Recover the amino acids of this structure.
DNA sequence: TATAAACACGAAAACGTTTGCGTAACTTTA
DNA sequence: TAAAGTTACGCAAACGTTTTCGTGTTTATA
């Protein structure tokens, strides 16, 4: 790579001092018009751009925000990143993305790499392993230093920082209510292990709706999918049984799509024999047949809000109270629940 | 945010010079064991980490690579980013992601922001608008400065830099061949406008296969989807006609899934009346019914290769010849072409 | 005991930038 | 013509780090 042109080199070229060049390029009236114009022309010709590192070091501000997500190949997370990037960009920030890969260790190392001065703030959705082991010291350390931090989606309730979450309880409530209103008596829940915060919250909404509708809770209808085992087989055990449920609420799109597949293979009519709803942010639900009724999560919006909270936190030193924003979901009704 | 601890502050604390502290923390034998250990304990207690900006400035190396993609909410691109991030991380680099949003202007500004000293190299897939207008000056400028640059997927053939592409021609050839072998006489092509490089290449593979199989080319079976118009309606005009094609090759998953939908709504049997194949890297094809036979693109692999090329270029100053790597596709046969 | 070697640290430059302040030289004012 | 003001630039510090070289003090060698 060719060495970049610097103030020093321009100064040498003109036999003036570095500060003269700096001022000339900034159109300072301190510099005579003649010298100023010649320096500007020269700099322009060589496409001078101030070295960002030097500026960042001097100004103690990088205008970069870090983002750590459990994975990026996931419609929801890429939507959130998209939202973050958009808002950040509009406000003069760039985005540095790291992937924890659901690993505690990688999350810690990501944070360590990012918080060595190269970013002004951090947006994180917590890795599965971290949620499992409940070791949050790396976040507590950040908070202790008042480092600007925003948690989204997979959050830790007790941490003193800004947060953005989906209305998981409300979304699950609405979906379950919809299923019961359509006549379902035995609504199964396909959820994650309890330590995943969003899974737990969606279960909460599901249970609330049952109670509200006067349906007795049947623990045997709650299935906690294990991530390291075969998904399809686990879902078969839900549907491919003597007395399958007459409705299913799945906490994500993949579970829902697989449930639909198994049900169809078993010869069940959808939605007549079994109605299915999934949480979603992807495109699968639209293209299954029948298309899946979905609890739509607005990832892009979530990203924008997270970025907004973070940038406010970075730029307003006044220590405002920490916010917790809740992004509403909405129920997109398709033919997996109503066939008309 | 609390001010971070620096060498200067530690030095003041111990009444020694900055260089002594620096050396002590690096376990230099120049510093007496007593002082060394005390300084290290102190630094450890206050969780000292060298300021990355200062190091980057001094070493003239950031260990960050920039990535510009047209969009991130797209399974293929997020897979590539995932691959880049993985390889980069394993080799001590971080990743800064920018999104051009298919806009020429944003692409230019992204490059401008990134190449002001804050990254060591750049990986780009070109925006649609840039491909359309054919204005490549921003890339030529980079190349003129020998700035490490790798183009992937949407590339510019004439540019002197490393490139990674999918075997678009081969993938389309194989898919078309498959359709013809199954008895198709009138294979339609659902492609993009010609200026999109991958669309053009896939058309080339399609045409090659027709020629190889002795099928006469029928230009009226080639449909160039326009991005700003309604997708569904455009696809209806392909299938919902008196004499629809008996097979379709779509250059992406969304086109294919919509074609499937339209065909089913028209009452066509799949694959008996009409067989469908789509290029893909997402999950939709797996969950349609019937599932779609797909030309699978290995985005993750592509990302890894792009990162490898870039990092080699960054670290080996010896000006090796520019490489053009081709990632093979493979045909995943599902029931939209063979029902058995 | 004089000299050489080892030890333990500090000074300063370098990376590239901005900016407050100082100061010559020149111009205006009284 | 002396005092004051203006013009046009340079100096130096600051951001935080690493590293080469220099140097004073102590210890070992002949």
């Amino acid at each position: 790579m060719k060495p970049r042109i610097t103030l020093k080199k321009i100064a040498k070229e003109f036999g003036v001092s570095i500060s003269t060049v700096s001022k000339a390029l900034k159109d300072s009236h301190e510099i005579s018009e003649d010298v100023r114009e010649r320096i500007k022309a020269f700099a322009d010709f060589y496409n001078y751009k101030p070295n960002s590192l030097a500026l960042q070091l001097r100004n103690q501000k990088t205008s970069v925000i870090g983002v750590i997500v459990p994975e990026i190949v996931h419609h929801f997370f890429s939507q959130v990143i998209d939202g973050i990037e958009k808002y950040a960009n509009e406000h003069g920030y760039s985005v540095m993305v790291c992937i924890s890969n659901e690993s505690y260790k990688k999350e810690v190392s990501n944070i360590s790499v990012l918080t060595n001065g190269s970013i002004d703030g951090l947006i994180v959705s917590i890795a599965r392993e971290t949620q499992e082991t409940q070791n949050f010291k790396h976040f507590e350390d950040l908070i202790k230093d008042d480092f600007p931090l925003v948690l989204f989606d997979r959050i830790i309730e007790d941490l003193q920082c800004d947060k953005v979450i989906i209305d998981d309880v409300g979304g699950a409530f609405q979906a379950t209510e919809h299923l019961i209103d359509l006549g379902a008596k035995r609504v199964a829940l396909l959820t994650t292990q309890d330590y995943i915060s969003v899974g737990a919250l969606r279960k909460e909404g599901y249970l609330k709706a049952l109670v509200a509708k006067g349906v007795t809770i049947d623990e045997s209808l709650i299935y906690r999918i294990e991530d390291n085992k075969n998904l399809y087989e686990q879902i078969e055990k839900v549907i491919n049984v003597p007395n399958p449920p007459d409705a299913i609420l799945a906490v994500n799109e993949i579970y829902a799509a697989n449930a639909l597949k198994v049900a169809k293979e078993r010869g069940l009519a959808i939605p007549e024999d079994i109605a299915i709803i999934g949480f979603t942010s992807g495109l699968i639900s639209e293209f299954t047949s029948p298309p899946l009724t979905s609890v739509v999560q607005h990832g892009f919006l979530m990203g924008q809000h997270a970025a907004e909270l973070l940038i406010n936190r970075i730029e307003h030193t006044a220590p405002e109270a920490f916010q917790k924003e809740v992004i509403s979901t909405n129920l997109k009704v398709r033919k997996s629940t109503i066939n008309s």
